[in-house]
Amino acid sequence: MISWRKHYKKTLIAIGLLLSTSASFYGQDGDPKNGEKLFKANCTACHALDKQVIGPPLKGVVERVKTEGGVDRDWLHKWIKDNKALRASGDKYANEIFEKYNKTEMLQFPNLTEKDIDDILAFTTNPPAPEEKKTEATPAPGADAAAPADKSTTNIVIISLLAIAGLLVWILVKLRQLVKLGQSEELTGLNESRVRSFKEMYEKFHYVGKGIIAVLAILAAYGVWNWLMWIGVYKGYKPEQPIYFSHKIHAGEQKIDCQLCHSSAKYGKVSEIPSMNVCMNCHRTISEYNADHYMEPGKDKAFYDGEIQKIYAATGWDPAKQQYTGKTQPVEWTRIHNMPDFVYFNHSQHVIAGEQAIINSFNKKNPNNKIDVVCKACHGKIDTMNVVQMANDFTMGWCIECHRTTEVDMNNGYNKEYFKNLHDKLKKQYPQDGGKITVDAIGGLECGKCHY
To answer: How many domains does the chain have?
Structure first.
């Protein structure tokens, strides 16, 4: 009996060790919720749970490496911390993976602790179920919420019918009065004094007629002149583009700098339309829309995912194979801001030389609508626009007004020295203004500056 009890205890201990080792191996000794945060912070640039991105899908990776390479969790710890050193040591399975994925070297993560890696492995083994989104209950069509609207509509119809009935009664009364008038002697006198032809009416009222014609002619001339002056002014113009691109999501929600995409706006004459390869810098690894906290009204996740697929079609990117096919499609963007050919405008001159001066001038004129980026002075608050539109008139008068009110930045060492004599002259000429130098004082109104 004693011998049997000893064997029984040994068996229980062995089973306990086996279960604990198994649980540890499958990553269950970690915290999946914390692992999800670590995974998103460190892994999502190259990996997804259920599909290949740059690297393989990581769902069930613990079981997969055991089946494919016969390695355990300790091997995964070494691989994640420093896969380069693991390959250099001659590890067969590590080098097989390196060759399998086109010798794309995985980043090293020496900063992750053993517990961090355990949490990540727990997440890949058993991802937490997504939390259900709380949605506000909305009344069904035809419910009590619709009752007040129906009652209001009924009242409006009744009031309208009563008004029409009253009008008909009034018309009948007036017709009866006219009939009575036709039967009286007063009507005979009126018939003798009335105008019987257009000629008589013109001779009687020709001064009034000429005055009215003159006023109408002046109004018509002003209307034509005003219409001609606004040809080519498209403030508020926001065309539909072949690929939907929300600046509010990219520049607003994600805080992407304007010049990351429009790289020539600062140092070039023209702010170019970014090539699709610029989009692929991010969307090579972002193949679906997961920012559930912001969606434009009327659009859902399927819509945004479809627009990302258009980027892949344009660049010839195969997300399954993670490589370019060579079959590209041109994207015919609709241009929004376009200066006439007879107008010279240099972006770099305004973005670099005039940056602080333009921002200061704009904020001074708009204290309740200040800007932090010079681009917004002309293009409006792009980071709040889902669909980009022309925010200003972009007329000659609009530019001249800006040149007349924008002060030159005299804190700039170059300007302070270069315009020293001009500054002294203006101080004497306009003492009440303190000799302020605005852009028009340094040639901002010269025709040849913009028209050449």
So the answer is: 2
